[in-house]
Amino acid sequence: QIHPDGVCDYGERFVTEEPEEPEEPEEPTGPVMLDPGLHRLSGGALGLSDTSRIGTAVALSRTFFPDPVDEVIVATAATYPDALAAAPLGGLLGVPTLLVAPDHVPDVVVEELARLDPSRITILGGTDAIGLGVEVTLRELVEPGTVDRIAGATRYDTAAKLADAYAELAPVTTVYLASGEGFADSLAGGP
């Protein structure tokens, strides 16, 4: 059985700060609104999100990476496979994953990259997933740092190349395989 120290729901509302506990808290039976932008779920879990997946990725970055970082992973917001494949790498490296549109870098991501001040950006996915114009913009934002792209012909190739690129960071003793046709199994099996 799982006994986590805490649970965070990346869903309905954005967490701005930890709420103060009442002196004798009542155990909620479902979502409970605490104030605008923050909610507590049953069991004491906090909700965290924004109005879009791009905004939620930025909210996660701001929450869990309050200081500048050396590297940022960038994936497309249009589909899930590359971002999902990035999750274990982000966890291993201790870096955020930000999402962009296939054809531009949203202002909120430009602002977050300026705040994070990385010296390296790793783009996941080919030019159909994240266009060359986006890569050029990212190069300008990280200058004089580097921008690398890990891409394969398919989502499966990209995930395999990603695993190969970072294999030296941690020994791999077991590999878990999940369908690339839906996100549920991969998400449930991820770190």
Short description:
This protein has 191 residues and is α/β, with parallel strands linked by helices. It is 33% helix and 16% strand.
Descriptive notes:
The protein has 191 residues and is an alpha/beta fold. 33% of the residues lie in helices and 16% in strands. It has helices at residues 53-64, 81-93, 107-116, 132-142, 155-165, 184-189, and strands at 8-9, 32-35, 38-40, 46-47, 71-76, 97-100, 120-124, 146-150. The strands form 3 sheets. It has a 4-stranded parallel beta sheet, sandwiched between helices. α4 links the parallel β7 (120-124) and β8. The radius of gyration is 18 Å and the shape is globular. The chain starts with 7 loop residues before the first strand and ends with a helix. Mean pLDDT is 78; it is low at 6-19 and 21-39.
Number of strands: 8
Helix content: 25-40%
Total helices: the number is 6
What pattern of helices and strands is seen along the backbone?
EEEEHEHEHEHEHH
Query: What is the approximate shape?
Result: globular
What is the straight-line distance between the termini? 16 Å
- Strands of the widest sheet, in order across it, are 6-5-7-8
The radius of gyration computed from the alpha-carbon positions, rounded to a whole number of angstroms, is 18 Å
SS-based class: alpha/beta
Report the portion of residues in β strands: 15-25%
Which runs of at least 5 residues are low in confidence (pLDDT < 50)? 6-19, 21-39
